[in-house]
Amino acid sequence: ATMSKWSTGTFECCKEPGGSFLCVKTCCCPCFTIGDINEAIDGPGGWAGGCLGDCILTWCCDLYCLCPLYQGLEVAKKAGFEEGIVNALACSCCCSTCYTCQQA
Predict the structure, then answer these.
(1) Where residue 3 falls among pLDDT bands split at 50, 70, 90?
(2) What is the pLDDT of residue 6?
(3) Each residue of 21-78: pLDDT tens digit?
(4) pLDDT reported for residue 42
(5) Which of 39, 57, 83, 84 could join 47 via S-S bond, C-beta 3.0 to 4.6 A?
(6) Cβ-based neighbour number of residue 33 at 10 Å
(7) Distance of alpha carbon 63 from alpha carbon 54, whole angstroms
(8) Residue 69 burial by CB count (10 A; 0-12/13-18/19+): exposed, middle or buried?
(9) CA nearest 81: which of 52, 56, 59, 102?
């Protein structure tokens, strides 16, 4: 089955599915959630690729928004709806934690 849009809003970080645990996990260790999403979308390197890729891009290059941007577009595509690049870029750069929770 395909979705027509995200199951939660961008700022509904504690809403189900996922709930408060997902929000806390993503706030404290975003690389773990990025890894989970990367594995679910068959991204490069699976869980480890997402987790390590996020750590490298965030801590070494200060490019914290690249993983959520890429994954937001991929999750939407796999779910059967289109995520606009402008919205994905704004969400991943301005509130990457909320956007990552929305994708998970």
Answers:
(1) low
(2) 87
(3) 999 999 999 999 999 999 999 999 999 999 999 999 998 988 999 999 999 999 999 9
(4) 94
(5) 39
(6) 27
(7) 9
(8) buried
(9) 102
Instruction: Find out whether 88 and 69 touch, Cβ atoms under 8 Å.
Output: yes
- Amino acid present at 60: C
- Cβ atoms of 45 and 52 within 8 Å: the answer is yes
Q: Which amino acid is at 2?
A: T
The helix or strand, by DSSP H or E, that contains position 98, with its residue range, turns out to be: helix 96-103
82 contacts: CB under 8 Å, gap ≥ 6? 76
Cis peptide before 17 (omega within 30 of 0): yes
Residue 6, both tokens = 């995200």
User: Whole-model pTM?
Assistant: 0.88
